[in-house]
Design a protein that fits this description.
273 residues, alpha+beta, 7-stranded mixed sheet
């Protein structure tokens, strides 16, 4: 039996929140998802819903699509949980998986290993922790999470590496940047060599609008709770000092590659208009 199959079997009955996709450890006896009870998420009207990885493998599949020759998106179809994508960033001295999706199948494992595997997993914020421990065990790599969001780690695995401060330099000039906002530990990935002025994977720390004419920053998206203007101003000043000309968000439609800095700057000005 393949190593990945042994791993899938071991975690097959671990419960997964059907609303946010967070996987709980085997010993967990919680009745309501701790992530969804936070005011930045929600328990659905019909109450707490749970599923397992083995059920997901029967009802869903992982889709993999190229965005460019060094960037691939991975997402679950049909939509499950929040519906976010993970991004596989290819780099000379090691690939990084940006965020996680709460399902991992053999097809995805084979694809990623054929691309050189994963040297690290970077997580933007707690909504996308999902089954990060399974991904890390499969690819034998660390998970980088900002220490400000430590309290939200549900399944504590040895692979988690907490970091602090405003930025963490990895390799090939890849950087994790703590912007805050949506969560205090809210993080983006900056890949300077992926485009002329740099590519930023922003998840929904910066939420790209469907029109692609605006970006938003909120404390809670599903509950429509805004950030204080002082926090938006702080993030705006930080972004103004960074170089990037491509922005990739949490969902499949959120690829912004034209007039990016102007769109970000104009969006921030709208908050103060």
């Amino acid at each position: 039996m393949p190593i990945t199959q042994n791993l899938f079997t071991a975690m097959s009955q671990q419960k997964i929140c059907a609303t946010c996709g967070t996987q709980y450890p085997e010993y967990s006896e919680v009745e309501r998802c701790l992530i969804c009870e936070d005011e930045r998420q929600y328990i659905p009207e019909q109450g707490q819903l749970w599923t397992t990885h083995s059920i997901l493998l029967q009802t869903h599949e992982t889709k993999i699509r190229p965005i460019n020759d060094r960037l691939f998106e991975l997402f679950i179809a049909p939509k499950f949980g929040i519906g976010q994508r993970a991004l596989l960033v290819l780099s000379e001295h090691g690939n990084i998986l940006w965020d996680c999706i709460p399902m991992l199948d053999e097809k995805t494992v084979h694809f990623i290993k054929a691309k050189g595997g994963v040297s690290a997993i970077g997580i933007s914020h707690p909504h996308y922790y999902s089954n990060m421990g399974t991904w890390a065990k499969t690819f034998d790599c660390p998970i980088y999470i900002h220490q400000k969001d430590k309290a939200y780690i549900i399944d504590e695995v040895d692979a988690v590496s907490l970091w602090s401060g405003e930025e963490l330099l990895l390799w090939d000039d890849l950087k994790l940047l703590n912007l805050g906002g949506h969560f205090d530990g809210g993080t983006v990935l900056l890949a300077p060599q992926m485009s002329a002025r740099g590519t930023m994977c922003c998840s929904d720390i910066l939420q790209i609008a469907p029109s692609k004419a605006f970006v938003a920053m909120m404390y809670s998206y599903p509950n429509n709770i805004p950030l204080p203007l002082r926090e938006i101003e702080r993030i705006g000043k930080r972004l103004g000092k960074l170089e990037f000309d491509a922005l990739y968000g949490a969902f499949t439609y959120q690829n912004l590659t034209e007039n990016v800095k102007d769109i970000v700057e104009n969006s921030i000005k709208r908050y103060f208009a």
